[in-house]
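Lecture notes, unit on binding sites. The following record was shown on slide 14. It pairs a sequence with zinc ion.
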Amino acid sequence: MHKTAAVLLSLALGLSACSTSPAPGSASQANGAPQAKADQRPVTMILPDGTTQQVTGFVKDGYVMVEDDIIVAEAGQLTQQGTYVVDTRYRWSGRTVPYTFASNVPQAIRDRVAQAASTIRATTNTVVTPRTSSAQRDYVQITYNTGTSCASGLGKTGGRQTITLADRCSTGSIIHEFGHTLGLFHEQTRPDRDQYVEIVWANIPADWQSQYQIRSGSAGYGTYDFDSIMHYPAYFDGKLAIRPLNSSVNLSRMGQRNGYSSTDVSTLNAMYPR
Ligand SMILES: [Zn+2]
Protein backbone atom coordinates (compact mmCIF):
# COMPACT_ATOMS: atom_id res chain seq x y z
CA MET A 1 0.00 0.00 0.00
CA HIS A 2 2.85 2.42 0.84
CA LYS A 3 4.40 1.93 -2.56
CA THR A 4 1.06 2.62 -4.25
CA ALA A 5 0.53 5.77 -2.20
CA ALA A 6 3.96 7.09 -3.19
CA VAL A 7 3.23 6.52 -6.86
CA LEU A 8 -0.16 8.22 -6.56
CA LEU A 9 1.42 11.16 -4.78
CA SER A 10 3.98 11.79 -7.50
CA LEU A 11 1.22 11.51 -10.07
CA ALA A 12 -0.78 14.08 -8.13
CA LEU A 13 2.15 16.48 -7.93
CA GLY A 14 2.88 16.10 -11.62
CA LEU A 15 -0.68 16.90 -12.60
CA SER A 16 -1.48 19.58 -10.08
CA ALA A 17 -0.84 22.44 -12.48
CA CYS A 18 -3.14 21.23 -15.25
CA SER A 19 -5.77 19.15 -13.54
CA THR A 20 -8.96 21.06 -14.16
CA SER A 21 -10.11 19.28 -17.31
CA PRO A 22 -12.73 16.55 -16.88
CA ALA A 23 -11.55 12.97 -16.82
CA PRO A 24 -11.63 11.65 -20.39
CA GLY A 25 -14.41 9.26 -21.27
CA SER A 26 -16.55 10.08 -18.25
CA ALA A 27 -19.86 9.17 -19.78
CA SER A 28 -23.15 10.38 -18.43
CA GLN A 29 -24.30 8.27 -15.49
CA ALA A 30 -26.97 8.46 -12.86
CA ASN A 31 -25.20 9.82 -9.82
CA GLY A 32 -23.91 7.02 -7.68
CA ALA A 33 -23.23 4.92 -10.79
CA PRO A 34 -19.55 5.62 -11.13
CA GLN A 35 -17.14 4.73 -13.86
CA ALA A 36 -13.45 3.97 -13.51
CA LYS A 37 -11.30 7.10 -13.41
CA ALA A 38 -7.61 7.37 -14.20
CA ASP A 39 -6.49 10.53 -12.41
CA GLN A 40 -6.22 9.47 -8.77
CA ARG A 41 -5.23 11.20 -5.52
CA PRO A 42 -4.75 9.88 -1.99
CA VAL A 43 -7.49 11.06 0.39
CA THR A 44 -7.77 10.70 4.15
CA MET A 45 -11.35 10.62 5.39
CA ILE A 46 -11.96 11.59 9.02
CA LEU A 47 -15.07 9.76 10.17
CA PRO A 48 -17.65 10.92 12.71
CA ASP A 49 -15.99 8.97 15.54
CA GLY A 50 -12.62 10.59 14.78
CA THR A 51 -11.02 7.54 13.18
CA THR A 52 -9.49 7.89 9.74
CA GLN A 53 -9.67 5.87 6.56
CA GLN A 54 -7.59 6.03 3.38
CA VAL A 55 -9.64 6.34 0.18
CA THR A 56 -8.66 6.73 -3.43
CA GLY A 57 -9.79 10.11 -4.72
CA PHE A 58 -10.09 11.02 -8.38
CA VAL A 59 -10.27 14.20 -10.40
CA LYS A 60 -13.48 14.97 -12.26
CA ASP A 61 -14.93 18.22 -13.57
CA GLY A 62 -12.31 20.24 -11.72
CA TYR A 63 -12.73 18.66 -8.28
CA VAL A 64 -11.08 15.91 -6.28
CA MET A 65 -13.83 13.48 -5.35
CA VAL A 66 -14.38 10.22 -3.52
CA GLU A 67 -17.32 7.83 -3.91
CA ASP A 68 -18.32 9.31 -7.28
CA ASP A 69 -19.87 12.51 -5.97
CA ILE A 70 -18.29 13.65 -2.70
CA ILE A 71 -16.09 16.72 -3.18
CA VAL A 72 -12.89 16.74 -1.17
CA ALA A 73 -11.21 19.80 -2.70
CA GLU A 74 -10.88 21.81 -5.85
CA ALA A 75 -8.42 20.10 -8.16
CA GLY A 76 -5.05 21.82 -8.03
CA GLN A 77 -5.38 22.74 -4.35
CA LEU A 78 -2.88 20.12 -3.26
CA THR A 79 -2.28 20.15 0.47
CA GLN A 80 1.23 20.41 1.87
CA GLN A 81 1.24 16.78 2.86
CA GLY A 82 0.13 15.72 -0.60
CA THR A 83 -2.89 13.95 0.84
CA TYR A 84 -6.35 15.48 0.73
CA VAL A 85 -8.47 15.36 3.86
CA VAL A 86 -12.22 15.29 4.26
CA ASP A 87 -13.53 15.73 7.80
CA THR A 88 -17.09 14.54 8.15
CA ARG A 89 -17.72 15.49 11.77
CA TYR A 90 -19.26 18.93 11.51
CA ARG A 91 -22.97 19.78 11.50
CA TRP A 92 -24.70 22.96 10.34
CA SER A 93 -25.67 25.36 13.09
CA GLY A 94 -29.33 26.25 13.39
CA ARG A 95 -30.16 23.21 11.17
CA THR A 96 -29.67 25.61 8.27
CA VAL A 97 -27.68 25.42 5.04
CA PRO A 98 -27.50 28.82 3.27
CA TYR A 99 -26.68 28.67 -0.42
CA THR A 100 -25.65 31.02 -3.23
CA PHE A 101 -25.24 30.54 -6.98
CA ALA A 102 -22.14 31.18 -9.04
CA SER A 103 -23.05 33.70 -11.75
CA ASN A 104 -22.99 31.17 -14.60
CA VAL A 105 -25.49 28.69 -13.16
CA PRO A 106 -28.35 28.32 -15.70
CA GLN A 107 -31.87 29.23 -14.63
CA ALA A 108 -33.13 25.67 -15.13
CA ILE A 109 -30.68 24.43 -12.52
CA ARG A 110 -31.53 27.32 -10.17
CA ASP A 111 -35.17 26.31 -10.41
CA ARG A 112 -34.35 22.69 -9.55
CA VAL A 113 -32.27 23.78 -6.55
CA ALA A 114 -35.17 25.91 -5.31
CA GLN A 115 -37.49 22.93 -5.72
CA ALA A 116 -35.04 20.65 -3.87
CA ALA A 117 -34.66 23.21 -1.07
CA SER A 118 -38.42 23.53 -0.75
CA THR A 119 -38.83 19.75 -0.57
CA ILE A 120 -36.11 19.43 2.07
CA ARG A 121 -37.65 22.18 4.20
CA ALA A 122 -41.08 20.60 3.90
CA THR A 123 -40.02 17.06 4.80
CA THR A 124 -37.20 17.40 7.37
CA ASN A 125 -36.06 19.51 10.30
CA THR A 126 -33.35 21.02 8.13
CA VAL A 127 -33.57 24.29 6.25
CA VAL A 128 -31.88 24.80 2.88
CA THR A 129 -32.36 28.44 1.97
CA PRO A 130 -30.76 31.28 -0.01
CA ARG A 131 -27.95 33.05 1.84
CA THR A 132 -29.11 36.52 2.84
CA SER A 133 -26.18 37.92 4.83
CA SER A 134 -22.39 37.81 4.80
CA ALA A 135 -22.70 37.07 8.52
CA GLN A 136 -23.65 33.55 7.41
CA ARG A 137 -20.02 32.49 7.23
CA ASP A 138 -20.64 28.84 6.48
CA TYR A 139 -22.53 28.35 3.23
CA VAL A 140 -22.74 26.42 -0.01
CA GLN A 141 -21.89 27.98 -3.34
CA ILE A 142 -23.58 26.13 -6.16
CA THR A 143 -21.36 25.99 -9.24
CA TYR A 144 -22.06 24.85 -12.79
CA ASN A 145 -19.94 22.30 -14.62
CA THR A 146 -20.25 21.44 -18.31
CA GLY A 147 -19.39 17.81 -17.56
CA THR A 148 -21.55 15.22 -15.80
CA SER A 149 -20.93 15.88 -12.12
CA CYS A 150 -23.58 16.30 -9.46
CA ALA A 151 -21.38 16.47 -6.34
CA SER A 152 -21.12 17.92 -2.84
CA GLY A 153 -18.81 18.09 0.15
CA LEU A 154 -19.54 15.80 3.08
CA GLY A 155 -20.93 17.65 6.08
CA LYS A 156 -20.08 21.25 6.89
CA THR A 157 -16.51 21.97 5.89
CA GLY A 158 -16.41 25.58 7.15
CA GLY A 159 -16.63 28.83 5.21
CA ARG A 160 -17.66 28.52 1.59
CA GLN A 161 -18.08 25.00 0.25
CA THR A 162 -19.30 23.69 -3.05
CA ILE A 163 -22.10 21.77 -4.66
CA THR A 164 -21.34 21.45 -8.36
CA LEU A 165 -24.13 20.65 -10.81
CA ALA A 166 -24.32 19.76 -14.49
CA ASP A 167 -27.29 20.07 -16.84
CA ARG A 168 -28.24 16.44 -16.22
CA CYS A 169 -28.63 16.83 -12.42
CA SER A 170 -32.28 16.29 -11.51
CA THR A 171 -34.12 17.76 -8.53
CA GLY A 172 -33.78 14.34 -6.87
CA SER A 173 -30.04 14.27 -7.50
CA ILE A 174 -29.79 17.71 -5.94
CA ILE A 175 -31.69 16.45 -2.87
CA HIS A 176 -29.12 13.60 -2.72
CA GLU A 177 -26.26 16.12 -2.87
CA PHE A 178 -27.75 18.22 -0.06
CA GLY A 179 -27.91 14.94 1.88
CA HIS A 180 -24.11 14.79 1.66
CA THR A 181 -23.87 18.49 2.53
CA LEU A 182 -25.89 17.79 5.67
CA GLY A 183 -23.55 14.91 6.57
CA LEU A 184 -25.16 11.78 5.11
CA PHE A 185 -22.88 9.04 3.77
CA HIS A 186 -23.82 6.62 1.03
CA GLU A 187 -26.11 4.01 2.57
CA GLN A 188 -24.11 1.02 1.34
CA THR A 189 -21.00 2.19 3.24
CA ARG A 190 -22.76 1.68 6.61
CA PRO A 191 -20.83 -0.38 9.17
CA ASP A 192 -23.55 -3.09 9.18
CA ARG A 193 -24.05 -3.31 5.43
CA ASP A 194 -22.54 -6.80 5.08
CA GLN A 195 -25.56 -8.15 6.94
CA TYR A 196 -27.80 -6.89 4.14
CA VAL A 197 -25.84 -6.78 0.88
CA GLU A 198 -22.97 -8.51 -0.83
CA ILE A 199 -20.54 -6.30 -2.72
CA VAL A 200 -19.70 -8.13 -5.95
CA TRP A 201 -16.02 -7.15 -6.01
CA ALA A 202 -15.34 -9.06 -9.24
CA ASN A 203 -17.65 -6.64 -11.07
CA ILE A 204 -15.97 -3.49 -9.73
CA PRO A 205 -12.68 -2.26 -11.25
CA ALA A 206 -9.74 -2.45 -8.84
CA ASP A 207 -9.26 1.31 -8.76
CA TRP A 208 -12.89 1.79 -7.77
CA GLN A 209 -13.11 -0.78 -4.99
CA SER A 210 -12.16 1.65 -2.21
CA GLN A 211 -15.33 3.61 -3.06
CA TYR A 212 -17.31 0.62 -1.76
CA GLN A 213 -15.45 0.30 1.56
CA ILE A 214 -17.41 0.31 4.77
CA ARG A 215 -16.95 3.62 6.62
CA SER A 216 -16.56 1.90 9.95
CA GLY A 217 -16.49 5.11 11.99
CA SER A 218 -19.86 6.26 10.66
CA ALA A 219 -23.23 5.50 12.22
CA GLY A 220 -26.13 3.65 10.67
CA TYR A 221 -29.49 4.98 11.82
CA GLY A 222 -32.46 2.63 11.76
CA THR A 223 -32.50 -0.56 9.76
CA TYR A 224 -30.56 -0.84 6.52
CA ASP A 225 -32.49 1.17 3.96
CA PHE A 226 -32.61 -0.05 0.36
CA ASP A 227 -34.95 2.85 -0.38
CA SER A 228 -32.54 5.55 0.79
CA ILE A 229 -31.86 8.34 -1.69
CA MET A 230 -28.26 7.93 -0.47
CA HIS A 231 -27.96 4.34 -1.73
CA TYR A 232 -25.90 3.55 -4.83
CA PRO A 233 -27.68 1.83 -7.71
CA ALA A 234 -27.25 -1.94 -7.86
CA TYR A 235 -25.22 -1.78 -11.06
CA PHE A 236 -21.75 -0.39 -11.79
CA ASP A 237 -21.12 0.12 -15.49
CA GLY A 238 -23.86 -2.37 -16.33
CA LYS A 239 -22.61 -5.10 -13.99
CA LEU A 240 -24.24 -6.09 -10.71
CA ALA A 241 -22.14 -4.53 -7.94
CA ILE A 242 -24.50 -4.67 -4.92
CA ARG A 243 -26.52 -7.85 -4.37
CA PRO A 244 -29.07 -7.93 -1.54
CA LEU A 245 -28.64 -11.01 0.67
CA ASN A 246 -32.43 -11.23 0.77
CA SER A 247 -33.17 -12.21 -2.82
CA SER A 248 -36.72 -10.88 -2.62
CA VAL A 249 -35.44 -7.29 -2.48
CA ASN A 250 -36.12 -5.65 -5.84
CA LEU A 251 -32.85 -4.35 -7.29
CA SER A 252 -34.57 -1.25 -8.65
CA ARG A 253 -35.18 0.00 -5.10
CA MET A 254 -31.48 0.80 -4.85
CA GLY A 255 -30.42 4.11 -6.32
CA GLN A 256 -33.78 5.92 -6.35
CA ARG A 257 -33.37 9.68 -6.72
CA ASN A 258 -36.91 10.85 -6.09
CA GLY A 259 -36.75 12.08 -2.51
CA TYR A 260 -35.66 11.22 1.02
CA SER A 261 -37.02 7.89 2.25
CA SER A 262 -38.77 7.83 5.61
CA THR A 263 -35.54 6.51 7.16
CA ASP A 264 -33.53 9.28 5.47
CA VAL A 265 -35.90 11.78 7.08
CA SER A 266 -35.62 10.24 10.53
CA THR A 267 -31.83 10.09 10.16
CA LEU A 268 -31.60 13.78 9.27
CA ASN A 269 -33.98 14.68 12.06
CA ALA A 270 -31.88 12.74 14.56
CA MET A 271 -28.78 14.60 13.37
CA TYR A 272 -30.59 17.94 13.45
CA PRO A 273 -33.13 17.85 16.29
CA ARG A 274 -35.50 20.78 16.60
ZN1 LIG B 1 -23.64 10.64 -3.40
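Take-home: The first helix runs from residue 2 to 15.
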